[in-house]
């Protein structure tokens, strides 16, 4: 039965939400973020749809009209009426309404019908609507954004779908391509390139065309202007005449010549590495376009040593030191002034860096050995100073043994044991972090990972220690996985794992049977090696270092990650879980900062945690060479890899003593 309701204009101040409105029970109603876009649209275009209302009796007051359908429109009108800057919207304004007679039954049904039976617009509908507004209404991007209270970027992103190849849009409408996969194709603004990507990805079946596979396809071949890499190479790329494929959103335009991008990046890395080499007085500089653990873990390293200052230089250094100490006192006096504390912090960092540059430097011997490696690490340029090439490293004899100044070789005292008294939960958590750190290195060392995997799998077949009734004697399972709420250094580790996983060739996993096996066998050697390395990394079981680790696991750990500190740095998340005596013991016994430990004996644990976090995050310039070496290399005994823990087959040391070592002792292997 059709209802023809009377249309009437009613003053806004006489309208309220009807008790039978199906949204009337939803707490405080709509949030401002839900109302504001509609209010902006009504201010631009007027109220396009009347409210559905019915009379409501009140006790003693004037009769009002209850809104059965259109509660958000009513809230938007009230928002406009309350805004004095918007003209024409007041409590007395007349609002078009459709009247439901008092005799009409099923008012709740009417309210639900209008609220529930509307279909939202999908992404392609939005594109077509915005495109029509531009073509037929003459509305530009800014006007569309203002009318619907959305950002201009949101409008541009909707319009960008129109630049996706028509065949791909049709595939989505036919149900053969998900919306997320469709949107992933706008990573490249050229429809021809989009179709090439689709055809390449769907070669082994349409099921391989997923959003992640599309993103991986483009990220490996093209660079966007707005990417970190794009920003670094953009000017050089333009100067070299590189082609830029324009996008509606400028930062999403594409640098299409990947070979030229790599050449410009190589030139940039070479220039900055050489400039840093010259500033540090080192012998050589080099660069890598991406991290290569298998290569860099073979390098040694030398470190700056204290420089004796005289005359004006010494006076200036003393002046800077006095100001640094003054800042430390002033910082606590501005607990309620964040701006003042930030200014003091910035000055402290700048002065500390200046003092460090003045008071430390490489010895003549070390400067002749060391160099600078500039490595592009996906988001920024990382510098590795004092690196020593494998061919330049002095020979070591096994008799040299471990240093007595490192984290494990620090002179023992009764206080030392307290820092090793971990709760079972802390042991489990630190074992997880240690294993994920080693796994991250192993995931980027394919050959070592393959050797380890082949050994483990073949040994389990030839000399089984257990059996599984699963139709095959070969079995693998994850030994560790991503924590849902990783924080601090672990979050950085897990984010890198995620970045690695996004680069893997995983399309064959979506296929089954012979098709899946054929797709896997078609992978390149490099793709398969990366998969093996990543998979083997996931099989590592969380363990802490022990006095007698498994020999094979120990060798793998030591080769993959000789120094746990290359991946993990002790931070507030770790220090906050230790006792106050343990923190003071680390500071006094392991780091050799007895005076500071004594100073903090009466301080709150939280203050010591903050100090330790800052010390390890950016070692203070006021540290002695020995203290700095200890801070740079220290890790809890249980976190160290086999070699660092003193169980290495070749006797490699944790750190050298720069005050007494000869040339070969100055190099960290």
Helical content class:
40-55%
Spell out the CATH superfamily of one domain. Answer: Conserved hypothetical protein from pyrococcus furiosus pfu- 392566-001, ParB domain
Runs in which pLDDT lies below 50 for 5 or more consecutive residues are 396-416, 461-474, 644-669
CATH-derived architecture of one domain: Alpha-Beta Complex
The biggest sheet, with number of strands, parallel, antiparallel or mixed sense and barrel status, is: 5 strands, mixed
Instruction: Please give the alpha-carbon distance between the first and last residues.
Output: 87 Å
What is the CATH topology classification name of one domain? Conserved hypothetical protein from pyrococcus furiosus pfu- 392566-001, ParB domain
Shape: globular
* Rg, Å, rounded: 33 Å
Estimate what percentage of residues fall within beta strands: 5-15%
Number of strands: 14
**Major sheet: order of its strands?**
1-5-3-4-2
Mean pLDDT: 77
What's the number of helices?
Answer: 28
Main structural class: alpha+beta
